[in-house]
Amino acid sequence: MLISKPADIAPSCITSETAFQNRRKFVQTLGLASGVALLPRAAGASLQEELTPERIVTSYNNFYEFGMDKTDPAAHAHELTVAPWSIEVSGEAKRTGTFALEDVLKGLSEEDRIYRFRCVEAWSMVVPWRGVPMKTLLEKFEPTGNAKYVEFTTLKRPSEMRAQRSYFSGIDWPYVEGLRMDEAYHPLTLMVTGVYGKALPKQNGAPLRLMVPWKYGFKSGKSIVKIRFSAQRPVTTWNVLQPDEYGFYANVNPAVDHPRWSQAVERRLPSSLFSPNRIPTLPFNGYAEEVAYLYAGMDLTRHY
Ligand code: MTE
User: Fold this and answer.
1) Which residues pair with 112 in a beta bridge?
2) So where are the chain's domains?
3) Which residues of 75-90 are buried (b: 16+ CB within 10 A; e: fewer)?
4) CA–CA distance, 38 with 47 (Å, rounded to integer)
5) Less packed terminus of the chain by CB within 10 Å, N or C?
6) Cβ contacts of residue 240 below 8 Å, gap of 6+?
7) Does pLDDT of 82 surpass 80?
8) What is the mean pLDDT of residues 194-200?
9) How far apart are CA 15 and CA 281, in angstroms?
């Protein structure tokens, strides 16, 4: 992102624990004989890949409200209070207002989905998320026919988010992301409430975060407090900060480089300086079969 650390600096937190063991543990936790049963067919692409160890998923993070280093979120997110939590819904919908999180989630069934997760900084993970299909959540608010986009605003609370108190963060808080309605309604799009079979840790965006597995990780806004339906495309944080580097769509695309680095390969965590674990990046992060139709006829080098 803004912060130009070389993408291939190895995370310091990597040890010898194998991802395979982790996957088995997760599957056992859920009482299932095989990970296959966890997944809808559409998410099957990541089935053959090892899970990234939970320790890495929860300690190598971007959550700039807590600092710019990958270790800052795990070190400082405990300062955040996540209960009670409410969501303000506004714009082109029949049911608007402020709702307690419990009411927003009431009646929706959580699902476990193993997804590839590719950060724009060229590292990637395979993560067992838990969440509710975004479509079922958004439909509760009865968006009108004018709703073409949905905007997600995340928490601004400088008293608990230390980087929001710092002039040097360079970001105009709050962090905002958005999707076209058809992207938000796609069956792969999740509103995440947990990871590794547990409640979502604060550093991963508790209590509610976006997950759009075919897009770069920065689209996955964390600690969401507002949902707004609109006819116009939302103004999103990274797109405004650096429009040449971060587009609104942010679909994973190995053919379109970031101006400062290639997007053709990724460093699958765990990786280290001596074992970088580089693999080719796939169009739409491996979900092309499921999502490419959403962008039919669009020039993806222009709409990056
Ligand atoms: N959401 C908020 N509110 N603030 C952030 O700084 N960082 C984004 C995204 N969501 C970010 C955010 C980026 S750049 C990435 S790669 C992912 O969160 C990281 O998610 P993870 O820490 O669960 O891996």
Assistant:
1) 130
2) 6-295
3) ebbeebebeebebebb
4) 10
5) C
6) 172
7) yes
8) 97
9) 24
Residue carrying the six token digits 């108190």: 165
DSSP helix/strand/coil, 154: strand
Confidence (pLDDT) at 81:
98
Structure tokens that stand for 294 in this block = 């959403």
Residue with tokens 């407090």: 225
Q: Under a CB-based contact definition with an 8 Å cutoff, are residues 53 and 22 in contact?
A: yes
Residues 138-184: pLDDT tens digits? Answer: 999 999 999 999 999 999 999 999 999 998 788 999 999 999 999 99
Return the best residue to mutate from 218, 219, 263 for the ligand 1 pocket (most ligand atoms within 8 A of CB). 218
Spatial separation of the C-alpha atoms in residues 220 and 157, rounded to whole Å: 19
Is the CATH number of domain 6-295 3.90.420.10? yes
Pocket of ligand 1 contains residue 64 by CB under 6 Å: yes
Question: Encoding tokens for residue 171?
Answer: 């970001």
Question: Is ligand 1 within 6 A of the CB of residue 220?
Answer: yes
Report the C-alpha gap between 135 and 126 in whole angstroms: 23
User: pLDDT by residue (tens digit) across 42-81?
Assistant: 454 455 799 999 999 999 999 999 999 999 999 999 999 9
CA separation for the pair 12, 84 (Å, rounded): 34
Query: For the whole model, what pTM was predicted?
Result: 0.88
Tokens found for residue 142: 């009865």
- Averaged pLDDT for residues 132-141: 98
What is the total residue count of the chain? 304
